[in-house]
Amino acid sequence: MIDNKKIIIVLPAYNAAKTLKKTYQEIPFDIVDEIILVDDYSTDDTFIVAQELNIKHIIKHEINSGYGANQKSCYNKSLELNGDIIVMLHPDYQYTPKLIHSMCYLIANDLYHVVLGSRILGMGALKGGMPYYKYFANRCLTLFQNILMKQKLSEYHSGYRAFSSEVLNTINFNINSDDFVFDNQMLAQICYNNYEIAEITCPTKYFEDASSINFKRSCKYGLGVLKTSIEYFLDKNLNIKSSIFRK
């Protein structure tokens, strides 16, 4: 705990058997109280590795439900366990667990309700091996979103995030997509509710065992991002209501 605030790490897992142990071993258990792993019907030994690590809270989906559905299970379980600060950490070791301290203290000290690990601040993305087409798409989508949503984030697409329980109890994340655009819809909901978002520089690693969506799925995600931003703009400025911004 930090200042009597319960810290929970959620691990949305899919075929993470090769990287889960390394990720888990770097989690700072001096402040972390609980670990939740949700296995989205992996075809490898992710579930077995999680059991070998004695992770207390393991949820196994009976079908492959999608990245967004995985996070829904993660966050609903974290609220059930009365977490005060919830950190989403990908178990593919693309993001370093060594930033958990910094992210949690910003929330525990009541400075922010949301903290993102940004790959774009500094040289984390390209240095870590992000493909150039993904970097270019990231920058274009982020510019578009910042204009329509009147924000100043360096990126909306990082999978490394920390939230206060207040945020998760305020936004209706369960109504969001079960696919990858879930992440973006969630940030739009957070901005819609006027929560200020902090960002810290995050190194990242792109390697064979790290999860990554292909070009086709990336295009689908990009279109979903554009749709979410337009819905946000229309709801905020023209009172054309979107369901994801309703509690």
From TrEMBL:
Organism: Wocania arenilitoris
Pfam families linked to this entry: Glycos_transf_2
PANTHER family: RFBJ PROTEIN, UNDECAPRENYL-PHOSPHATE 4-DEOXY-4-FORMAMIDO-L-ARABINOSE TRANSFERASE-RELATED
CDD domains, A to Z: DPM_DPG-synthase_like
Domain Glycosyltransferase 2-like stretches: 9-169
Domain of life: Bacteria
Name this protein carries in UniProt: Glycosyltransferase family 2 protein
